[in-house]
C-alpha cells in the first residue's frame, strides 16, 4: 500500500530532521482526505451490496413454491425501484459511497429479474442475449447516475457476456462475439471517461486483448500475427509519438493506452516467434523485437513506467531467446548458462543506467517532448 | 466523511425513475413476449426423448430432449447452405393419431403456414455441410424448450420419467415460430400448474 510506504518515509524524514513532525502529520492528513485514497469502508460497502444482491439471486433459485412467481417478479421489480430510489436519495444527501453501493445492488437485482423471467418461462439456449440485456441495463444505470461503481460492474458484465457466448458457441463463426466484444469495450471506455472510474479502464483494454487473441485463435496464420503486430505498433505510435494528434487524448487516460498498445505489439511479436521457421526470418524478427523494445524505452521510458518495464522484459526475453537459438547448440548447457548470465548482467547494467537517467531527468524537470 | 461529488447532468431522482422505468419496461417486454405465445400460440404436444448423459440434473432444472430435435436430412426442402456457419431451420410439425406431433418437413427458409400443421423455428445452430457441400444425414437442433425449471430436489422424479419415456410436454408456438413450454405431463397428467404470469 502506498499509504504505508508514505507513512514510513515521512516518519524517516521527520526522524532525520528533513521535515518537522507536524508537517509529516499534515502531509499524511492531506493524503487521507483525497478521494482516491484507499478506504476500507468504501470497499466493505460495495462488498455488502454484492452480498445483498447475491442473496436475492439465490432467493430466486430456491423458494419455488413458497411465493407465486408473479409476486416474486413484482417483488424483485420493487427491489430495483427501491435500490435506485435509495441511490438518488443518498446522492442528494451527499452520501456518495452508500449511493454507489445501492446502484450496485440495483444492477444485481436487474440481473436477478432477468434470470427469474428465464425460470418462469423455462427459457433455454439464449444466455448471451440475457447477459447482453443485463450489460445494457448496467450501462444505462452508470450513464444516468454517472456512477463509477455501475461502470465498473458493466466492465465485468462485458466479460461475462463474452464468456457466456464463448462457452455457448466455441467460436466466432456466428460473428456475434466478433462485433460485440469491441462494441462493449467502446461502451465501457465511454462510461469510464464519463464517470471517471479510471480503474475500470483496464477491463475494457483487457477485453480488447482477449478479442485479439480470439481473432488469432480463429485465424491462426502468420498474416494474422503480422496484422496484430502492425496494429499494435500503429496504436502505440499514435498514443506516444510527440507529433501524433491523438497523443493528448491518449495521455488524458494515463499510462494505459500506450501500455496496452505496446502490449499488443509485444504479443504480436511473441506469436510471430512461433510462426517463423527459417534462420534469416528469426534474425530479422530478433532485430525487430529488440528495436521495438528499445524504441518503447526511448519513446515513453521516462513518462510511462508500465511501458518501460514491459520493454525491459521483452528486451531480456528476446536476447535470451536469440542466445539460446544461436549459441545454445554450440556451447552446450553449461555454456548457455554462462551466456545467459552475461546477457542478464548486460541487461541489468542497461536498466540501471536508464533508470538513473530517467530519475535525473525527472529531478531536473526537463520539459517533456 | 463526505467525498466530492462529480457534476451530474441528470437530477438523481430523474435518473432513478428513468433507470428503473427502462429496466422495468425491458422485463415487462420479456414477460409479455412469452405470455403472448402462451395466450395465442398454436398448441403442439411433444414426447420427450432421453438425453445423454441420462442423469443431467443441472441444479434446479431438468434437461429435456425431443424427437423433433433430430431432423433427418431427407425431409429438408429448398436451398441448402454450402458453407459452414450459424443457421436457423424452420420445421413443419404435424400431429399423429396419438396426439403427438412430429417433424414432417424442414427448410433453411421460412415455411408457409398450412392448415393442420404448425411451423416452428429452431435456435441458431452451427451448421457444417458434408464433404461435397451436401446435407448431413441428420441435423441436431434445439428450440429453446430444452429446460424445465423445478423446485429444489424435485428434478429426479421428472428425470426418471423422462428416461422411461413417460414425459410429454405441451408447447405453444408463436407466429414467428418461437416455441414456449406450456405444461409438462407425467404419465399423461399435468405435473405442475403453469400460470400465464
UniProtKB/TrEMBL annotation, chain A:
InterPro entries listed in its UniProt record: DUF2157
Limits of the DUF2157 domain: 12-150
Transmembrane feature ranges: 43-64, 70-90, 102-121, 133-164, 176-194, 249-271, 283-301, 330-352
Keyword Membrane: yes
Keyword list, A-Z: Membrane, Transmembrane, Transmembrane helix
Family matches, as Pfam families: DUF2157
Protein name as it appears in the record: Putative membrane protein
The organism's taxonomic lineage, starting at the top: Bacteria, Pseudomonadati, Pseudomonadota, Alphaproteobacteria, Hyphomicrobiales
From TrEMBL, chain B:
Species: Mycoplana dimorpha
Protein's UniProt name: Putative membrane-anchored protein
Domain of life: Bacteria
Amino acid at each position: 500500500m502506498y499509504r504505508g510506504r508514505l507513512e514510513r518515509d515521512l516518519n524517516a524524514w521527520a526522524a532525520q530532521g528533513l521535515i518537522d513532525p507536524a508537517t509529516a502529520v499534515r502531509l499524511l492528513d492531506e493524503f487521507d482526505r483525497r478521494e482516491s485514497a484507499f478506504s476500507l469502508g468504501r470497499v466493505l460497502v460495495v462488498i455488502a451490496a454484492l452480498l445483498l444482491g447475491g442473496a436475492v439471486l439465490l432467493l430466486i433459485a430456491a423458494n419455488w413454491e413458497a411465493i407465486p412467481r408473479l409476486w416474486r417478479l413484482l417483488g424483485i421489480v420493487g427491489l430495483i425501484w427501491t435500490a435506485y430510489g435509495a441511490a438518488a436519495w443518498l446522492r442528494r444527501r451527499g452520501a456518495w459511497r452508500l449511493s454507489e453501493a445501492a446502484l450496485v445492488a440495483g444492477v444485481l437485482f436487474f440481473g436477478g429479474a432477468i434470470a427469474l423471467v428465464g425460470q418462469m418461462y423455462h427459457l433455454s439456449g439464449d444466455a448471451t442475449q440475457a447477459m447482453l440485456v443485463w450489460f445494457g441495463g448496467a450501462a444505462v444505470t452508470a450513464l444516468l447516475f454517472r456512477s463509477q461503481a455501475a461502470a465498473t460492474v458493466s466492465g465485468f458484465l462485458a466479460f461475462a457476456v463474452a464468456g457466456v457466448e464463448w462457452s455457448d458457441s466455441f467460436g466466432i463463426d456466428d460473428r456475434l462475439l466478433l462485433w460485440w466484444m469491441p462494441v462493449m469495450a467502446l461502451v465501457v471506455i465511454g462510461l469510464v471517461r464519463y464517470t471517471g472510474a479510471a480503474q475500470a479502464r483496464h477491463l475494457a483494454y483487457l477485453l480488447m486483448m482477449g478479442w485479439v487473441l480470439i481473432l488469432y485463435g480463429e485465424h491462426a496464420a502468420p498474416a494474422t500475427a503480422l496484422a496484430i503486430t502492425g496494429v499494435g505498433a500503429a496504436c502505440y505510435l499514435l498514443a506516444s509519438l510527440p507529433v501524433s494528434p491523438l497523443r493528448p487524448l491518449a495521455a488524458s487516460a494515463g499510462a494505459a493506452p500506450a501500455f496496452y498498445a505496446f502490449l499488443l505489439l509485444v504479443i504480436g511479436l511473441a506469436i510471430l516467434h512461433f510462426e517463423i521457421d527459417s534462420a534469416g526470418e528469426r534474425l530479422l524478427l530478433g532485430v525487430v523485437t529488440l528495436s521495438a523494445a528499445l524504441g518503447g524505452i526511448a519513446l515513453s521510458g521516462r513518462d510511462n513506467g508500465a511501458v518501460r518495464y514491459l520493454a525491459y522484459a521483452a528486451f531480456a526475453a528476446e536476447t535470451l531467446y536469440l542466445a539460446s537459438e544461436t549459441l545454445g547448440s554450440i556451447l552446450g548447457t553449461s555454456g548457455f548458462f554462462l551466456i545467459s548470465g552475461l546477457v542478464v548482467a548486460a541487461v541489468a547494467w542497461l536498466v540501471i543506467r536508464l533508470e538513473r537517467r530517467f530519475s535525473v531527468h525527472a529531478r531536473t524537470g526537463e520539459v517533456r517532448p | 466523511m463526505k467525498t466530492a461529488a462529480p457534476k451530474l447532468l441528470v437530477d438523481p431522482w430523474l435518473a432513478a425513475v428513468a433507470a428503473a422505468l427502462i429496466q422495468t419496461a425491458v422485463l415487462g417486454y420479456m414477460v409479455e413476449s412469452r405470455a403472448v405465445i402462451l395466450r395465442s400460440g398454436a398448441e403442439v404436444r411433444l414426447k420427450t426423448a432421453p438425453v445423454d448423459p441420462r442423469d443431467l440434473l443441472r441444479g434446479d432444472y431438468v434437461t429435456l430432449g425431443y424427437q423433433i430435435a433430430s431432423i433427418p436430412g431427407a425431409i429438408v426442402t429448398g436451398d441448402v447452405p454450402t458453407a459452414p456457419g450459424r443457421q436457423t431451420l424452420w420445421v413443419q410439425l404435424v400431429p399423429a393419431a396419438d396426439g403427438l406431433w412430429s417433424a414432417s418437413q424442414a427448410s433453411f427458409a421460412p415455411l408457409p403456414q398450412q392448415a393442420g400443421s404448425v411451423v416452428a423455428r429452431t435456435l441458431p445452430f452451427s451448421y457444417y455441410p458434408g464433404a461435397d457441400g451436401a446435407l448431413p444425414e441428420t441435423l441436431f437442433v434445439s428450440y429453446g424448450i430444452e429446460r424445465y425449471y423445478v423446485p429444489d430436489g424435485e428434478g429426479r422424479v421428472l428425470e426418471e420419467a423422462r428416461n422411461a419415456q413417460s414425459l410429454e410436454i405441451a408447447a405453444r408456438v408463436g407466429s414467428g415460430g418461437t416455441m414456449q413450454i406450456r405444461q409438462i405431463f407425467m404419465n399423461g397428467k399435468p405435473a405442475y400448474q403453469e400460470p400465464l404470469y
